[in-house]
Amino acid sequence: MIALQIQSHPVPLWLAAAPAQGGKAASEHGEAQDVRLHPLRVLIVEDEFYISLHTQGLLQALGHVVVAVAVSADQAVKIAERERPDVVLMDIRLMGSRDGIDAADEISHRFGIASIFVTANTDRETRRRAEAVQPLGFLEKPLTEQRLRLGLSKVAH
Amino acid sequence: MPARLFINRVPPQRIRTFLSLFALALTLPLLAIAVFALNRMAGLEEREIERRALQVAQDLSGDIDRELERATITLETLATSAALARGDLAAFHEQAGQALKRDGAGILLVDNTHQQLVNTRAPFGAPLPQTADPQTAQRVFDTKQRQVSDLLIGSVSRQPLINVEVPVFAGDAVRYVLIMALDATRLASLLHGQRLEPQWVTGVTDNKGIILARSERHAEFVGKPLPKDLLEMSRAAKGVFRATSVAGANILRATVRSRIAGWLVSATVPVSYVEASRKRGQFFAAAMMGTALTLGASLAYLFGGFMTRPLDAATIAAAAVGLGKPVEPLRSPLVEANTLTAALSAASAELQLRHEHSAFLMRELAHRSKNQLAVVKGMALQTARQSATVEQFVEQFGQRIQGLAESQDLMLRQNWQGAWLSDLVRAHLDLFGAGPRAELDGPALFLNANAVQNIGFALHELVTNAYKHGALTSPQGRVSVKWRGPQSDGRVYLEWIERDGPPVRAPERKGFGSLVITELVAQALQGTAKLDFNRDGIHWHLDTPATSVLTDPPTITPAST
Predict the structure, then answer these.
(1) Is the residue at B21 inside a domain?
(2) What pLDDT does A26 receive?
(3) N- to C-terminal Cα separation, chain A
(4) What is the mean pLDDT of residues A85-103?
(5) What is the Cα gyration radius of chain A?
(6) Do the Cβ atoms of B382 and A12 come within 8 Å?
(7) Average of per-residue pLDDT across B267-289
(8) Any idea what the CATH number is for the domain that residue B110 is in?
(9) What's the CA gap between A85 and A67, in Å, rounded?
(10) B214 and B89 in one domain?
């Protein structure tokens, strides 16, 4: 329910940087063509709204579409099932009993959708568990446009 | 104090050493008492032997005197013989021969020229020599009394012998001297009359210091002079003394003078015999000492082992604690070591817990600090979007950072587990000095880290708004923060109610702050939020599932006040 609300009001959050004109920002990095032709539908899983807002802004600037922001593993699975995004930007540490690795695993198995882990410092054990899920990659927080673009370039259309 | 001084000076020792010293301390006084008692007993035994030696010498002296008396009586009886009185020497020879009931003696009669007239050792009528001891015979003529000779060699028998000589009177004058010659061997046989242990040696020495008889090796020593020093000591000392015997042995010697003959009658025992008791005592003491020391040392070693092994194990356990390894409590015969390792085991478990906890905190901190930077970056970008001027950005961004820091501080105090809701509300109110104007009401709820962060964001925006546009812009304005714990519906409610402020009307355009409190925070907590613009003041209402905001308060750290 909440995710739907957010999804239905992405524009007021981001004001000027409207998704339709996302190509303008991306063109400076020479990938405008690809993005414009193949915008990705992205699910953000992140429980810090300041971070998810930032990620949302970066994705829109790159010309992609944010289908929703989920704050927990269960929510992420539910939305993925309904929205079938092209890729999930997954925070590993989430509130609740399950973490992002669990969610990514389930989403990958059930819907064949790959995740990119977006995380702050990860210890070795967590990293090993995360790699077992065979994610598309790992992105370090805080995100930058360049890192994000590089990470998303691995997503198959 | 002396004990401490001693301990400070002595280098550290093993338990076994202390136990050995303990054993020594226990046994030495007992040993000392035993040695003293044995010594004392040996002394008494020595006194007893000395007393006995004197007794033996006195008894022998008595025996000899009696022998001499018997000889005297025989002689005095013969002196009154009728045959002798009438000058019938042949008859007297016969009579004298009969008077000698025992062997080893002879009877002689000499005249005043010391010529033997009768000698029972020779047939009557045979030619006889002069007496071998004219001095003693002459003394009888002179004194008219009985005399006893020293040792001499018989002129007929050629044997060592002594003479007992009595006068034979004719009127008042001494006509003859009647002599009984007693073989020295007779005296020697007297010495054997006393039944003594083989260690005892008895002897008789004449007035010239010549050995008359000896209970042992008589034939060898008879006629030999007593060593000069031994003779002098015997003559000078009354009673018992130690010396070197004629046979060259160390002896204890008791000497008594014969009453009749003036001879020295002695009883001797080897010093080794006298000291046998002392020697036995010393041997016994040494054996006891050896046994006590060996036993003490063995027991000290054994009991030391009982203590040392568990203590060594405890030492290893202590080292293991230092290395952060787990330690099992010991089950040894030593209670103290068991207690020690139990404490070490508890310490190691505690250390392990703390280690894990600090590792957890490190991981948590590493992650959170990086994650918080991402939050701050997002915060900066959002703030920048709504700021018309750099000054405005700096002010708003600074306040948001400050708010974030407040929430962070609270969590830090609770080991990153979360924070008490009342603490969180108060911290954000106090940041603006709004504490005294607010009224808090609700049960003690412990929020999880995510809820602390997000509710902190919401409270920050609410306080900021209250000061900018809401109730706190006027002096009468009040804020009331109420919350209710998890009800049967499993939800937590939080309300922010402003009143007594300036009249309120809904803004035309929603700002970012409004978005935070109505949507972003609620979404992050999987709940809903509502903002009403009542006339009296705004009313914000948050409704979340308890599971997404609450957690168990940490037991290690008490709740902040």
Answers:
(1) no
(2) 40
(3) 28
(4) 91
(5) 15
(6) no
(7) 86
(8) 3.30.450.20
(9) 7
(10) yes
Query: Is B334 part of a structural domain of the chain?
Result: no
The encoded tokens of residue A19 equal 């998704």
Residue ranges of domains in chain A: 2-6+19-152
Spatial CA neighbour of B64 closest among B187, B243, B180: B187
Does residue A4 belong to the interface with chain B, where contact is any CB pair within 8 Å?
no
Chain B residues with CB under 8 Å of a chain A CB are 363, 366-371, 373-379, 381-382, 385, 448, 450, 453-454, 457, 510, 515-516, 519-526, 528, 547-548
Residue B432 DSSP class: T
Query: From the candidates B375, B387, B452, which should be mutated to test the interface with A, based on the most A CB atoms within 10 A?
Result: B375
Pick the residue from chain B with its C-alpha nearest to A73. Answer: B526
Average pLDDT, chain A: 79
In a domain, B392, yes or no: yes
Residue that terminates a domain, selected from B273, B295, B324 = B273
> Which has the closest alpha carbon to B240: B256, B227, B228?
B256
CB contact under 8 A, A142 and B510: no
Cβ of A6 within 8 Å of Cβ of B378? The answer is no
pLDDT in tens, B473-497: 988 999 999 999 887 889 999 999 9
Q: Does A56 touch chain B (CB under 8 A)?
A: no
Type of residue at B506? A
By the CB < 8 Å criterion, does A2 face chain B? Answer: yes
pLDDT the model gives residue B219: 86
Residue range B237-264, pLDDT digits in tens: 667 888 887 778 888 889 999 888 889 9
**CATH classification of the domain holding B399:** 3.30.565.10
**Looking at the 3D structure of chain B, how many domains does it have?**
2
pLDDT of residue B124: 87
Instruction: Write phi, then psi, for B373 (nearest 5 degrees).
Output: -65, -40
Collapsing DSSP states into helix, strand and coil, what is residue B73? helix
In a domain, B282, yes or no: no
Does domain A2-6+19-152 fall into CATH 3.40.630.30? no
- The structure tokens 């911290």 sit at B427
Give the pLDDT confidence score for residue B555 in this predicted structure.
67
| Mean pLDDT across chain B | 88
Element (H, E) at B38: helix B15-79
pLDDT average, residue stretch B152-157: 83
Name the minimum distance, in Å, from the CA of B387 to any CA of chain A.
13
**Nearest CB partner across the interface for A120, out of B367, B382, B385:** B367
Testing the interface with A: which of B371, B508, B550 to mutate, by most A Cβ within 10 A? Answer: B371
Residues B392 and B269 in one domain: no
Q: Residue B445 in 3-state DSSP?
A: coil
Our CA-based measurement puts residue A49 at a distance from the nearest CA of chain B, in whole angstroms, of: 6
Q: Which residues of B touch A96 (CB under 8 A)?
A: 547-548
B374 and A5 in contact by Cβ < 8 A?
Answer: no
What pairing do the DSSP bridges indicate for beta strands A115-119 and A137-140? parallel
Per the CB < 8 A criterion, the answer to whether B458 and B521 are in contact is yes
Instruction: For A3-53, write each residue's pLDDT tens digit.
Output: 333 333 333 343 333 344 334 444 344 444 455 557 999 999 998 999 999
Which structural domain range is residue B99 located in?
A: 32-273
Among residues B166, B183, B170, the alpha carbon closest in space to that of B110 is found at B166
Would you call B523 and A121 a contact, using CB atoms and an 8 Å cutoff? no
**A72 contacts on B by Cβ (under 8 Å):** 526, 548
**Are A47 and B373 inside 8 Å of each other by CB?**
no
pTM metric for this prediction? 0.58
**Strand segments (E) across B392-474:** 418-420, 438-441, 446-448
Segments in B114-249 forming alpha helices (H): 134-143, 184-191, 218-221, 228-236
